Amino acid sequence: MVYTKALVISFLIFLIGGSQTPEGVKIGDNAPDFNLKNVDGKMVSLNANKDAKGYIIVFTCNSCPYSEIYEDRIIALHQKYASRGYPVIAIQPNNPKISTGDSYLKMKERANNKEFPFAYLIDTDNQETTKAYGATKTPSVYNK
């Protein structure tokens, strides 16, 4: 597998007062790949899209007020950078059994209502991808 560098885009993280834990990716680390389900039912992996130069990875959800505030900015990021080879991939990190507003069905509704132009993925039941990246708050943004 080929992995590229992951950089934390700190402007969104620090705007909400969050920071990364000592675990997870740091500037210059290789970005962990994943294979997660998109709201369209297809599986998405970083290594599957050979045309992408990299990705803007955003951990976001339906139920966080900060994430809701930043949705239009996330859409704008995708619209600006996808054509340059850096599409947004949004990952919903919450356990939907605990946060019912973040269920897969609610994600599909949100993506449809907001017309998300990017992949909106649900993390595994154990939040493996979220833990691998060290995302502890939403929104958390990484550039791969």
- Runs in which pLDDT lies below 50 for 5 or more consecutive residues are 1-22
CATH superfamily: Glutaredoxin
- Distance linking N and C termini: 14 Å
Strand order of the largest sheet: 2-1-8-5-6-7-3-4
* β-strand number: 8
Largest sheet: 8 strands, mixed
For this structure, the CATH topology is Glutaredoxin
Assign the structural class, choosing from mainly alpha, mainly beta, alpha/beta, alpha+beta, or little secondary structure. alpha+beta
Q: Helix segment count?
A: 4
List the helices and strands in order. Answer: EHEEEEHEHEHE
Question: Nearest-angstrom radius of gyration?
Answer: 14 Å
- Share of helix among residues? 25-40%
Q: Give the CA-based shape.
A: globular
Q: In CATH, what is the class?
A: Alpha Beta
Secondary-structure map:
Elements: E1 5-8, H1 10-15, E2 29-30, E3 35-38, E4 43-45, E5 56-59, H2 65-81, E6 88-92, H3 104-114, E7 119-122, H4 128-133, E8 140-143
